[in-house]
Here is the input.
Amino acid sequence: MTVMDVERGQSAKYQLQVIDCDIHPAMTSWKEIHPYLEKRWIEHLAVYGSHLRHAFSEALSHPRMSPDAARVDAYPEEGGPPGSSLDLLQKQHLDPNGVEIGMLIPLRWNPGSQRNLNLGVALTRAMNTWQVERWIKQEPRLRASVLIAQEDTEGAVAEIDARGGDPNFTQILVLPRTDEPLGRRRYWPIFEAAVRNNLPITIHVGGTGGHPSTAGGWASYYMEEHHMVVQAMQAVLASLVFEGVFERFPKLRIVIMEGGLGWIPSFNARMDKHWNRLRSEVPQVKRPPSEYIRNQVWFTTQPMEEPGSSAALIDLFDRIGWDRLLFATDYPHWDFDDPRTAFKANLSEAQRHQLLYGNARTFYGFDE
Amino acid sequence: MTRHVVATVDQIPPGRRLLVTLGGREIGIFNIAGEYFAIGNRCPHNGASLCKGRIVGLVEASEPGCYQFSRRGEFVRCPWHGWEFDLRTGKSRCEPDRTKVRSYDLKVEPGGALTDDTLRAETFSVSVEQQYVVVEI
Here is the structure.
């Protein structure tokens, strides 16, 4: 008998090889980005703070089922919020879970929905540099996302062009609660810049743009809101399709992150059915909507669906397209998917490898 | 069944827990207000370490707007996805027959009663006046 520390070692059975498309890094305080902010904005934050179009500016709209929406076991011993310790990220996640490449998705502080657009742009610039200096320079397995203040198109495009070509950055990050539906023409210069710099645009659930988080208004419960993230993702995709964005930018690549998967086939079928009948209203949509989705949209797998039978899950993957699925864990959040247990289906080793590693390697160009 | 002496009672005070490995299995021993429970450490859903979960009670509602809180401290809530497991049975609250973790027989016995070979093989010194936590697997 031995009394053990509670740590999960690498399973000897599987030699895991993983690309994790969704890791949330945190700051211990705003001060972490002071070195990359102009003095004017440091003073602004000290005097006025940040201002989102959202009550309780620094808080989430609903108390999560656990504080910080985090795994209970992800609090660093040295203090600070989950996701703020590189050491713990390595020991608890990157090393035991075989993560060769991990994508940083900074969510808090929401520079994309700051009402003061100049502050938003300054924060994106600072937080983009912060990702490189604080994380990637200490841990080369990590990659950054280009945060943009999408409501200031000019500032957003300048930031994309500034980071394009820098191999530390693999994608552009936007949260779906934008001021207008994302396909509207005011955002097109952002799509143009994404294509010009060969960067996909990743849309991760959440945001604080001021619109209620469900189409029926503000939800009472976290569990209620948590289901409704699907609505936001459907609104984004419908807007991109029917505004003609995919037609106008055939090389644009979109990643839908953490929006679930089960709804995608029925959503596609419904759009196709209506397009067959109502196409003349949107002549810019030249092909069935599902074709644009199939060709230009990828989906991250977490939170993995658990339909209760292996066949149902495999059927879902067949219908979405196996090559469109990118593995993600969401570390350190509570709904973390473990690469060993996430897929409750009888997958071949080749299928498992494709989902956990191969697809993301091809999609992000890591094999070039 | 093999009996394993895992600790003296004062090594697991009320509200505390101990993770042990017995026969290659990780088992969490919980002391809830002086009562001891033993369950497997691995969450049957996705493998998280249940020993790191919070101890919770049962919140139920007879109708919207009314709620009852009962069985304080008798469930462990998985540190990841929040599955609640009854420490007495190892069964989850929501899928008791399908999603469950093994619970183990556990006894507290005085040192004087422990005279079998298992105890003698332990390396720590045994004072027979003490009370011991014994798990059967």
Notes: Confidence is low (pLDDT under 50) at residues 119-126 of chain B.
